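Suppose you are handed a protein chain with no further information: no name, no annotation, nothing but its sequence. What can you learn? This example shows the usual starting point.
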Amino acid sequence: MSISREEVRRVAALARLRFEGADEEAIADDMARIVDYVRRLEEVDTEGVEPLAHVLGLVNDPAEDAARPSMDRGTALKEAPGTAGPYFLFPRVIGDGGEAP
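A reasonable first move is to predict its three-dimensional structure. Written in structure tokens, the prediction is:
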């Protein structure tokens, strides 16, 4: 299957990515190979195969919740990289919502 540059641009826009020139062509080729591989997987006979969420059969076994005393504010703030009165200071980690680079 071939993927057009327009399809690459549409998927890139949805993912907030930007590709140019040769990159678009390379991404189109990669996407076409992925779609072809998924089509091959659809041909596999799965009749009678039970669906599963994880191949290892893991079980979520959370620890019991138990109330315990918390650290006092002074000790917590003493360990902080920066403070402003009774608050922690830390570098901004959330973007301004602008366009993706």
